[in-house]
Amino acid sequence: MERAGRSSTLGSSDEVELEPSGNSATIHLDMTAGGGSSSSDFNPFGAIDDVRFKTDDDLPDVMVPPFFSKYGDFHTIDWQRDLARDRLRHKMISKKKVDFPLGLLQSGWDAGAGWICVLFVGLAAGATAGIIDIGARWMSDLKTGVCADRFWLDREHCCWSSNDTFYKDDSCSAWTKWPWMINYYNSSSLLFSFIEWIFYIVWAVAMSTLAVLFVKIFAPYACGSGIPEIKCILSGFVIRGYLGKWTFIIKSVGLILSSASGLSLGKEGPMVHLACCIGNIFSYLFPKYGLNEAKKREILSASAAAGVSVAFGAPIGGVLFSLEEASYYFPLKTMWRSFFCALVAGIILRFVNPFGSNQTSLFHVDYMMKWTFIELVPFALLGLFGGILGSLFIFANIRWSRFRKNSKMLGGNPIYEVMVITLITAAISYFNPFTRKSALSMIQQLFDRCEDQVEEDSLCDQNKALSIAFGQLLWALIFKFIITIFTFGIKVPCGLFVPSIGMGAIAGRILGITVDQIFRAVQATPGHSEYFTCQIGKDCVMPGLYAMVGAAAVLGGVTRMTVSLVVIMFELTGSLEFIVPTMVATMFSKWIGDGISKMGIYEAHIELNGYPFLDSKGEYPYSTVASQVMRPSIHRQVADEMSMSDLRELKNELSVITESGMTLGDLESLLRQTDFNGFPVVVSQNSMHLVGFITRRDILLALHTARKTQPYVVTNSIAYFSDGVPDSVPGGPAPLRLRKILDMAPMTVTDQTPMETVIDMFRKLGLRHVLVTKNGKVLGIITKKDILQFMRNKDSQ
After folding, report:
1. Do 522 and 656 lie in a common domain?
2. Helix and strand counts by DSSP (H, E) for the chain
3. GO cellular component terms (predicted)?
4. 125, 455, 570, 583: least buried by Cβ within 10 Å?
5. pLDDT band at 151 (very low <50, low <70, confident <90, very high)
C-alpha cells in the first residue's frame, strides 16, 4: 500500500501510480431474470489481468486495442504492465494478417515503425546539432568583432573568404574588431585593449542573460545538462514536460547563447537531452511507442545514442554511452536501433559540415609517432590526477548546488546568479589566451602537434614553453576548475563534458611539457642511454598526446565512464594508435575516483534532487530483510516474533479492501480518508489473505463510470472483486463487479526475503512496488523510494 504523497518521508512522488491502465472503460450489462435489475462488470482494457486467455483461440473475435496508460507527473511506470499491454497489442495485429491486404500492411507498418521512428530522430538530431554548432560558433566570435562584409560568417570563415594567404589570430584584415567599429584604430594603446575587454564582457553577459530569461519564462526544464534526468526517465520515472516541444526549442536557442557567452560549460550533455526531446516528439507519430511508456523508452535510448553521436562525432561511442551510462532497459533490438539512429545522425552532421573541416571527429589529430612503455607511468599519473580532480569537483559542486537549492537569495534569483558568474568568467578569461578563446578551440590547440609552420605558438616555442605557456596553462587549469564548480547547475543549458575535457587537456599538456623537458635534459647529459636518443618534438615526446590522455582521465574521474569514454575519445580524435594509453588513464581514474567516492557527478545530482533512481551498478551494503524496509514499518520486532496485538495494530495501520462485503459508499469513503495510491485486496479484515492489488485511479474510474452509466448502481451497491457474485434482489441495488480491474498476480515477497533479492527484482523487472506477506497474509508494501529512503537513513547513522 502506498501514499499519493508522504510528506514526512516520500514527498509528492511515490511509486504506485494513480493513473489507470486505460483512459476508457467499458460497462458490460448482465441482465438478470429478476425485476430488470443488472450487475455491472467494469473492465478498463489494458491491465495485465484485465483479459486472461489460456490460448490464442480464446481471444474474442472483436478486441479493442489497449488504451493509453497516462501516468502522473513524478511517478514511475509499470514496466511489466506496459510490456504486457504491448504483447497483447501485437497479438491483435498478428490476428489481422489474414485480412489481405490491409491486415498485412498494418502488420508490416507495425514491424517497421521502430526503424522509421529512429530514422526520423537521427535526421532531426543531426540537423539540430549542425544548426547549434554553426550558431554557437558565430555568436562566440561576436565577442571580439564582426565580419564587416559578410556578417553571417564567423571569424575563421570570414578570414578564409578574404584574400589573406595566411590566417593567424591577429592578422586577418577581413575581421573587424569592435574598437575599429567606433573608429578607434590605435591597437597598441591601452585604451584599445580596454574597449575590447568591455565589448567582450558586455556581449558575454548579454548572451547568458538572454538564455536564462528564455529558460525562466518559457521552459524551466531547459536548464542544466539534462543527463541526470534522462537517466531517471530511462529508468521509468515520469517528468511531464521535460521532453516536450517547448523544452526542445528553448534549450536549443539557450544552448547557442550560453555556449557562445564563454561560460565554462559545454553543449555536448544538453545535446543528449535535445535528442531525447526529439525522440519523445516523434514517438507520438507512432502509437506503438507514443502510447506505451515502456516502449517509448526504447526510442529514448536510441535518441540518447544519437545525442552523443552528434555531440562528439562518435556514433559507436554514443551507443556504448547509452548502454553503459544512460539506459536502464537495453534489449538487443534497442542496441541495433541505437546504432542505426547514431549512424544516421552522424551522416547528417557530416553533410551539414558545421566546422567546415569535412570531418566528423571534433578534434582530429595526426600524431606521427609511437608511444613507449616508459610513458605508461606518466599516463597512469594522469589517471591518478583525473580521479582526484574529478572527486574534488563532485564534492565541491554538490556542496554548492545544495547551498544554491536551500538559499532563497540564490535559488530565487537565478538571473542575477547567471549574470554575476558570466561577468566574473568573461572579465578574468579575457587576459589569458587559453581561456579567452572558445573551449573547443583551446582543446584543439592543446591536442595539436607542433609543426615548423606554427613556431609562433608559445606552446611549441621551447624558449617560451616553460616561462610563459606553462604559467598560462597552470592559471587556466586553476581558474577553469574553480569557475566550473559554480557554473555547472546554473539556470542555463550547460554541459560538463567539454569543461572536463578542457581541464584534463590542460593538465596533460603541462605534464607533456614537463616530460619533454626531462627527456631533453637526459639527452643533454653525456653518456645517456640510447633509449633516450630520439628526435625531440617529432618522435620522442608529443605533449599533445598527453593532453588527449589527460582529457580522458579527468572526464572519467568526473563521470566514472570507462568503455564508452575510451571509444568516444578514439572517435573524437581519430587516433586508433593511442587507445591503450587512454585505457590506462581511464582505469586509474575510475579506480581512484571510486576509492574516494562511489558516485559520479550525474548520480550525485540525482541523489541531490531526490529522484527515485535505483542504480543498477550499485550494491546494497546492509543485511536486512523485507519486513525492515516495508511500510507500514515494524519498529518493535521482526515479523516472526510479532504478537497478536502487534498484528492487530499492523492490520489497523494497513488500509485494505476486502474482496466482498464493502459497498460503493465504503470505497468512496476509503478514498476520501486516505491518500494511498493503491490498496491490497484481501479475503477479509480478519484473515488478511492476499487476493490481489488495485490502484487508486482504477477504483476512481470504475466508480465514476458505474455511477454515471448505471442507474441501479447506488451507494449501497456491494463491490465484488471475486467471481462469486450473488444474484441481485429485485428492485434492490445492483452489485458491482470489479474483478477485471484487479491485478490478480501482484509481485510479492515474504517478510524474511533478503533485501538484496528484492532490489534485484526492482532492477531487473522494473517493478514499482512489491507486497510483503507472511503465510499468505499481507503485512505491507515496498517501493523504490522506500528502499532509497532506508539506505539514506542508514548512511546518515
Report:
1. no
2. 29, 13
3. endosome membrane
4. 455
5. confident
d(CA 265, CA 459): 24
| 342 belongs to a structural domain | yes
Can you say whether the dihedral through the CA atoms of 615, 621, 622, 623 is positive or negative? positive
470 and 557 share a domain?
yes
Q: What is the residue whose three cell numbers read 515520469?
A: 238
Compute the average pLDDT of residues 164-193: 75
The residue among 64 and 588 whose pLDDT is bigger is 588
Amino acid code (one letter) for 480: K
Give the whole-angstrom CA distance, residue 18 versus residue 363: 49
Number of domains in the chain: 3
The CA distance from 43 to 710, in Å, is: 14
Residue reference for cell 515494524: 634
Residue in 195, 170, 173, 174 with CA at minimum distance from that of residue 184: 195
The verdict on 665 and 604 lying in the same domain is no
Residue 76 lies in a domain: no
- 439/404 same-domain check: yes
Q: For residue 681, give its domain range.
A: 626-796
pLDDT of residue 486: 94
Kindly state the cell numbers that stand for 17.
501510480
Co-location of 675 and 567 in the same domain: no
The 10s digit of each residue's pLDDT in 120-141 is 999 999 999 999 989 998 999 8
The verdict on 659 and 778 lying in the same domain is yes
Task: Show the 3-state SS of 504-520.
Answer: HHHHHHHHHHHHHHHHH
Among 318, 352, 386, the domain boundary falls at 352
- Lowest mean pLDDT segment, chosen from 278-292, 440-454, 485-499: 440-454
Instruction: Please give the average per-residue pLDDT across 741-749, as a whole number.
Output: 88
682 and 719 share one domain: yes
Written as nine digits, the cell of 355 is 566546422
Residues 227-236, mean pLDDT to the nearest whole number:
91
* DSSP letter for each residue of 9-78: TTBT--SS-SS-S-S--EEEEEE-SSTT-EEEEEE-TTSTTTS--SSGGGS-SS-PPPPP-PPPTT-B--
Please report, for the domain that includes residue 634, its CATH number: 3.10.580.20
DSSP 3-state assignment of 551? helix
Contacts of 258 (CB under 8 A, 6+ apart): 207, 208, 211, 265, 492, 493, 494
pTM above 0.90, yes or no: no
Identify the domain boundary among 609, 638, 661. Answer: 609
